[in-house]
Design a protein that fits this description.
The chain has 240 residues and is of the alpha+beta class. It is built from seven helices and 14 strands. Helix content is 21%, strand content 26%. Bound molecules: 2-oxoglutaric acid.
Amino acid sequence: MQTTHFTSSQAQQLQADGFVILPSLYQPDEIAALLQCVEKAPPSGPNFRRSQEVFAIRNLLGEVPGLWTLLNTTPLRTLLNQLFPQGCHVVKAIYFDKPPLSNWLVAWHQDLMINVDRRAELPGFGPWTSKPEGVSVQPPVAVLEDVCTIRIHLDDCDASNGALKVVPGSHQSGVVPMADIAAHTRDVTVCAVPAGGAMLMKPLLLHASNRSTSARPRRVVHLEFAAAELPEGLQWRERR
Ligand SMILES: O=C(O)CCC(=O)C(=O)O
């Protein structure tokens, strides 16, 4: 059955643990249409990364313009209205495939950087990075606390094909210095999510993922939403 209501206990889990799994946000035919749309995209340019280990498309909604119409279902809009009653915008979208038997592993980290349209001298913003695809910056913690990520799973995902591992509650520790991360990663949960399900997570949640030992792919649409506007002079690069 499709999830059309984000329950108060799910909202509480997101607040307390920094993540929650919604087992059914999209129907099988919707997932098939999403996959078909992504697979038709011509893979070229700095936003595409394809190797044996990973296939990623950054600025996904810019690179695959038809995708938003397929993603923007009534259950997604209902969920967003509950998460952000004051309204929100998409601020980042990525497609990840961890292909069968991929060696791609992701070390423990928090999602500290946001994508912006330019460099600007602003208190609390930094460090900055500039890559071919654009400028990113670490914003003040309050900006990160406002963001909610929705990872839509296009395949059944479990520990064998690289499910995300998280440290429940770690989003409440602020920015964890690199040297302290190991000490924070003792109590770990592996987030299995079925195809059509979604994992909601806060950017400050410590997370990682293992190599795949399975013959199954692990395809995910990663969407970040925020209600806040950035200070004058700075804009979310992928805002829509
Ligand atoms: O999908 C994964 O396995 C890791 C992705 C990740 O860590 C991220 O998006 O920050």
